[in-house]
Amino acid sequence: MKSLWSDSEARKFKGDLGKRVYTSRLLGANPELVLHGGGNTSVKTTEKDFFGDKVDVLHVKGSGWDLGTIEAAGFAPVRMDALLKMSLLDELSDPEMVKQQRASMLDPGAPNPSIEAILHAVIPHKFVDHTHANAVVALTNHKNGKETIEEVYGDRVAVIPYVMPGFDLAKAVAKALSKVDPFKLDGLILMNHGIFTMHDDARTSYELMIELVTQAEIHLSKKLGKSFSFPTAKADPDLLTLSEIRKKVSEQRGAAVIASLDSSEEAAGFASRKDVAKLATRGPLTPDHTIRTKRIPAIIGSDPEKALDKYAADYEKYFDKYNNGETMLAPDPRWAVWQDNGVISFGASAKEAGVLSDISNHTWHTIQLAEAAFEGGWKALPPGKLFEIEYWELEQAKLKKGGSAPAHQGKVAIVTGSAAGIGFACAESLAEQGAKVIGIDLSPEIEEQMAKIGGIGIIANLTDDEKVIEAVESVIKQFGGLDILVSNAGIFTAGAYLDKMEQSNWDKSMAVNLTSHQKLLKYTIPYLKNGIDPAIVLVGSRNVNAPGAGAASYSCAKAGLTQLCRVASLELAPFGVRCNIIHPDAVFDTKLWTPENLKRSAERYNMTIEEYKTRNLMKTEIKSKDVGNMVSAMASPLFGKTTGAQVPVDGGNDRVI
Fold first, then answer.
1. Residue 656 lies in a domain
2. 80-87 and 167-178 helices cross at what angle (nearest 10)?
3. Does residue 104 belong to any structural domain of this protein?
């Protein structure tokens, strides 16, 4: 492991807190040290309080901040005297500790201090760094872990047996430090948990972390030998089965989840190990991860439903054995080993699934290292100890606060023709309600447009079967399934009377405005049948019910699309898939309607532009966002009992009515 310290960069960070920010980011930049909010750091300073009195303060990482991106505002300033007084108490509950730590802050607007604030306070050094370094955890998590730590580090570190994080751990560390000269130590090794380094100089404390972790890496490397390599295999996962797995896990959780599949050669190699069922279920990398990942993953073989039912039943037994009045979490896995195919991570959002994927990836890599390096292999904490973390009182309190999720949280949506106009508005509204949106469009702008809403853009010609299949399969591979389809792609081919119309006008309209939608339905329906509250919304036109002269190719294609919707609703209702169509009209805030076009059309009707834009019964302007919001609503439980419907968004049209 290499030090990332740069003198020129360090000079940009002023004062003790500035140096604390800088070295914290260096730690957070290395996933082998900390992952997604893991670890914590602190610095002790003297400052003036509100009244101008000098106060000894501990700036410790605040709850919710990530070391990799932390700012000065992410550190909670807590009075040292209060923390040290708390360390002398015989007992202190976690909720009371959190309350008293907050009451002792100089800035009431700062985030809650880390649960390890008292621990940082009892370590006398100015700078304190704490990580969950993979290599160090690999050294501790086997039957001879303590002996290995002593062999590697000698008297450079103090070894702390595993203790529940929080007040009890702070007491254990204080007791251990009282028996030695702490300034002769370079660090602390917390068994099954992680490593602390400390010094009065920010750079030295950081580089001690790098040095001690490097020692662990070197020891592991020697134990493994030059011939060691991770097993690899090539996987060809069945995507329909993946969507079935996602649906089952979503049902167990009671909410839609994103299923992120890692089918890389190393992930498939791990999943193909003959001993993977026993190896993967020995316990997490560090207890802190249990809050995110649960104690163990599910092991999915040839019968996914049976495997997931067994996981849920085993989880309930685990809860019944160790619970002491806690509220049971949903019995779904947070990650799973799909034998011979790879590793799946399940999150309430794509971001959470990505976090879980990172954690599970580091977990199964480190487990294999320890398994190969040490006699007896990987050994985590016993289930009862992990239950204490998973059902931590502070975590249970979060459950009681509750809160409702957005309508489309965890859902996966495809929106075609979404580089601009109505399509983009539909994608934006779905994203605002929690969906992971994938936009498909012929325009290269689709990638940039989708990035604006946290989505993914795919450039594809929807009249090309191979491109449609490729796009749909890429969505399933990334997110595990499909719940919402908004088929909006289209072109306007008006301006030609029947006897004057070029045949290519008609053919192109039918290909884009009708057949491309049929192709998309053909290739998405198998996955939508495994969707969560699945819904299809087709984008039609007012021309279906009130056509105009000179628009035969467009109007007939949209009429055919409406009929396609009606047939699809009949065919898919038995599978719980809804299919409805929306008929917008006079939506002028799109690229199609330039100021010149709008002015020309208004003059044709002897109207002002404003009169023309509101030429409906309600005298209201219809905007893309109005259509997008209606589409989002139609894909939501609000329309959960509706299928085969035609919904106008036109402000009221006398010809239609």
1. no
2. 80
3. yes
Please name the residue ranges forming H helices in 380-420.
Answer: 383-390, 393-401
Give the model confidence (pLDDT) of 576-625 as tens digits.
999 999 999 999 988 778 888 889 889 988 999 999 999 999 999 999 99
Q: Are residues 604 and 627 in the same domain?
A: no
Whether residue 459 sits in one domain with residue 348: no
pLDDT tens-digit readout, 154-202:
999 999 999 999 999 999 999 999 999 999 999 999 999 999 999 999 9
Rounded Cα–Cα distance for residues 331 and 343 (Å): 19
Residues present in the chain in total: 657
Say if residue 612 is in the same domain as residue 627: no
Number of compact structural domains in the chain: 4
| Strand-pair category, 194-199 with 187-190 | antiparallel
Q: How far apart are CA 183 and CA 495, in angstroms?
A: 85
The predicted model scores a pTM of 0.93
Backbone φ and ψ of 216, nearest 5°: -65, -40
Both structure tokens of 333: 């896995």
The domain boundary, picked from 382, 401, 420, lies at 401
Closest listed residue to residue 319, CA positions, set 295, 299, 297, 345: 295
Torsional class of 332: left (φ above 0), alpha (ψ -120 to 50), beta (otherwise): beta
Catalytic positions: 541, 554, 558
> Which residue, 514, 511, 510, 516, is CA-closest to 465?
516
214: three-class secondary structure by DSSP: helix
Domain of 610 in residue numbering reads as: 591-621
Strand partners, 336: 298, 344
Give yes or no: residues 262 and 300 share one domain.
Answer: yes
